[in-house]
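Message: Just now I want nothing more than another pair of eyes on a protein record. I am handing you a single protein, as its sequence and its fold in token form. As I understand it, each token names a local backbone shape. Take your time, and here it is.
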Amino acid sequence: MSEEKQLKKFTTAQFLNFCLGFFGLQFAWQMRIILSGPVTEGLGASPFLYGLIWLAGPFTGMVVQPLVGAMSDKTKSPWGRRRPYLLGGALIASIALWIFPNSSSVATWLHNLTGLNLPPLTALLIAAIMIWVIDACINIAQGPYRALIPDVVPTEQHSLANSYISLSIGLGSVIAAATAPFLAYVFNYKMPIPAQFVMAALAFTLGMLWTCLTIKEKSTAKSDVAENAEVEQVEEVQNTSFLQALKDFFALSPEVSKICWMQFFTWIGTMCMMIFFTQYSVHTIFGVPDLTEVSAEVAKSFEATTLDGTNFSSVCFAIFNLVCFLVAIPIGILAARFGNKKVHIISMLSMVVAYLGMALSHNMYVVAAMMGLAGIGWASICALPFAMLSQYIKPGTEGSVMGIFNIFIAGPQVFVCTLVAWLISKCSFMQDGLTNYHWEYTFYIGALSLILASIVANRVKSVDSAHS
């Protein structure tokens, strides 16, 4: 009897156990998105340096996930193929999450330990290394986590398993973003940034530990000869499929190129907000000047306002992710009725309106409402481009084609981390005798990119053209 036939259907309790680790992973990732800016700026990172540090995400996503995914396929251990990577990634990331906001203290400790005169930006270098470690470890856990579904969940429940993961992503993002503001507004407790990273580390480690202990994965320590032969055969087919998909990707259909360009401009627009929103909240909405080159006394005087701006950013991200969570299913229903293309274009244009609203108005309530509106576009971006592409994928090449498609997600992030960050660093102005930057310009660039994405999307002749 095959392993697939031995798999028993998951109960609701088992699905909750299964997705708790991803809840912790998303909790940590959301905290890294919101708080990495204030930490690195406090250590001397200019807007351009901050963008370069953000390169960790796309580079580790393009390199680490495919590599670790392939390694986990071949891993043999008493704990299974995937769980060593899930728990190992969570533990190492949690250590980095603790070190990251304490990079200055670590630099001081190294100075006292070695007696060396370390360069002034040593603490920033440590923080940058920790960001790369966090992103790499999140990718180490994320790839095998997705691959764990076919290992332990029956085929007929795969869609349900992915739905539970989507649920955990939404809840993890909302709770991570809302916890500190909730404590501040309800209990008047302003949670320090290092404490928030400790909270993220605990959520990641404990959530992943719970999943690894409660989800039983088949041991691969003593695989028999027949199983090894079967695995080698599958790997050979997968490698052939990937090479063929790489060669024929753009030959699948003329529409595939359009979908890729649509995705490219879409993710430029998306990451313009994701990467810079906290800096926009702190410096543009709350008026905190650039603190990278001011004295310690001046920086200290803005500490409370900076934390208020960071908490406001967290509230906005909570609203953004909550709206995404609430409209995800309705968007799918509307797409089934009116077509993926039409619904996706309208959703992206709603995000354009939100970006322009945030660029033109710095009122806190307006900005919070605009972030909610942007959540509609985010819900569509997370689903409909993949649905549009899937109509042209040849059976048996799904994984490799989606891997190639990921280039048009990671590539735009490199553009935003470098060119957009450089542009902002060149757009400074004086505020009460101190330097500040036009962080709102990122929303103009993002809006323009999403308009271009909508124009390209309108040219796609989708299979659901009856609706288009």
About this structure: The first helix runs from residue 3 to 6. Confidence is low (pLDDT under 50) at residues 221-240, 464-468. The domain at 250-468 is CATH 1.20.1250.20 (Growth Hormone; Chain: A;). The beta strands are 428-431, 434-437.
